[in-house]
Amino acid sequence: MGSCWSARIKSVAPSYSASTFAASSGANSKISSRDGVGLSSCSSTVSSSSVPPTPRSEGEILQSTNVKSFSFSELRTATRNFRPDSVLGEGGFGSVFKGWIDEQTLSATKPGIGIVIAVKRLNQDGFQGHREWLAEVNYLGQFQHPNLVKLIGYCLEDEHRLLVYEFMPRGSLENHLFRRGSYFQPLSWSLRMKVALGAARGLAFLHGSEAKVIYRDFKTSNILLDSNYGAKLSDFGLAKDGPTGDKSHVSTRVMGTYGYAAPEYLSTGHLTAKSDVYSFGVVLLEMLSGRRAIDKNRPTGEHNLVEWARPYLTNKRKIFRVLDSRLEGQYSMEGAQKVASLAFQCLLNEGRLRPNMDDVVTVLEELHEKKSNPPPPAAKAKPLPETMFHAQSFGSRSQRPRIRILEDSSSAKVSYPRPLASPLYE
C-alpha cells in the first residue's frame, strides 16, 4: 500500500454506470443528462521506458493489473457457493458476498480460515455490466494507496464477472451517519474528523500527478471504514482520467448523485478535479450536521443541505444551527469554525475559487495535530465557551436524551454496507 503505477490505465471510450446510492426518502438519486456532451479524447505520453504503454484493449488492461485472476470455481468455493447467508450487500451491479482466502496463496479456504474478502458478483439481469466491472479493474487494479479500497482480484470467465476486495468490517460512512440502531451509534467528533482526513487523502492522491483521476462519485456510501475507522474510497465506476496537456477539463455526460454534483458540472458537463472538491464539501457538511445532502422529510427550505446550511457556515453566532446536536461538547469552538469554513470554501459556486485537495488535507492535518497535542490539564478543565452557547441553542443537557457516541473501539458491532443502485450509462 502507499505506492502506485505511474502510468494511467485507460479503456476504450470509457463510460460507466454507478453502483451505489443512499436510499432514504429519495435522497442521493442518480442523475444523468439527457443530452450529454461528447466524451473528449484524453491521451498521455510516458517518457520512462520501464513503464508499460497505456493499454487500449480489454486484454491489455487485465494483463497490466497488479491483481489476481481468479477462476469462477475458486470464488464459488470461497463464498460457499454464494450462499444467501453470505450476502454482505446488494446493488445495481449485483450482490456482494463474504468469503475467505489464504493470505499467502490467495486460494479459497473454509469459513473462518485465512482472511475475509468481499466478492462482488455481476447480476446478469441487472442494468450495470461489463463496463463498470472493467472500470474497477482499470483503476483499482493499478493504484494502491492506504485510503483506497484494495482490489485483490477479479474473475472473467464465460459470462461471469466478479471482483474481489479487501473486507471493510466497519461498513460505510453513510451507515454510521444516518442509520439508527444498536449497530450504528453516532460517530464522535474525533472519529468524523479522522474519517474526513482519510477520505481527503484518498482524493488528493487521485488528483495527484501520478494518478490524475477525477473520482466523480464522492459520497458517504462510497467511503468505507476499516476496523480502526480508517477511510477508504470505493466504487470507481464513474471515475475519469483527468484533463491533460492544455485542456482544463473533461467534457462528458453529467452523471453522479443528486446533492453531491458540482453546479458547473451540472450546467455544462465540464468535469474537473474541483468538481470532486465540491462533493467533498457536501460530505464534510453531512459529517458536521448529521443530515443527508438531500432529505425531503425535512421541513420546507431544508430539503437541500447545502442551500440551507451555507448562510450559517461563516457566521460564528449561527454555526451551531448546522452542527449535529449529538456532538455537543466534543469539539472546540475554533475547531468547529475551521471545519465549517473549510466546507464553505469547498462549496463555492465557482470551481476555480475552491481549494485543491492538497490544501484540504493540510487544514485537516493541522486540526488533527492540535487534537493530538491537547492543552495542559488546567486549561482543559475550563468550560468551553461554545458549550454554554450550545446548551442555550439546543436545551440543557439534562433535558436531552442520553445518546451513546461511538468512539474508536474494536468491540463495537457494525454491518457491512448494503448499497442499492440506480444505474445509468453514458
UniProtKB/TrEMBL annotation:
Under SUPFAM superfamilies, the record lists:
Protein kinase-like (PK-like) (SSF56112)
In terms of Gene3D superfamilies, this protein maps to: Phosphorylase Kinase, domain 1, Transferase(Phosphotransferase) domain 1
Entry protein name: non-specific serine/threonine protein kinase
Point out the coiled-coil segments of this chain. Answer: none
Q: Enumerate the PANTHER family for this protein.
A: OS01G0588500 PROTEIN-RELATED
Q: Which terms under GO biological process does the entry name?
A: defense response
Q: Which Pfam families match?
A: PK_Tyr_Ser-Thr
Q: Does the keyword Heme apply?
A: no
Q: Region annotation Disordered: residue ranges?
A: 367-426
Q: What EC number(s) is this enzyme filed under?
A: 2.7.11.1
Gene Ontology molecular function? ATP binding; protein serine/threonine kinase activity
**Family according to the record:** Belongs to the protein kinase superfamily.
Sequence positions that bind ATP:
K120
* Domain Protein kinase residues, every copy: 82-367
Tell me the organism's taxonomic lineage: Eukaryota, Viridiplantae, Streptophyta, Embryophyta, Tracheophyta
Q: Which UniProt keywords apply?
A: ATP-binding, Kinase, Nucleotide-binding, Plant defense, Serine/threonine-protein kinase, Transferase
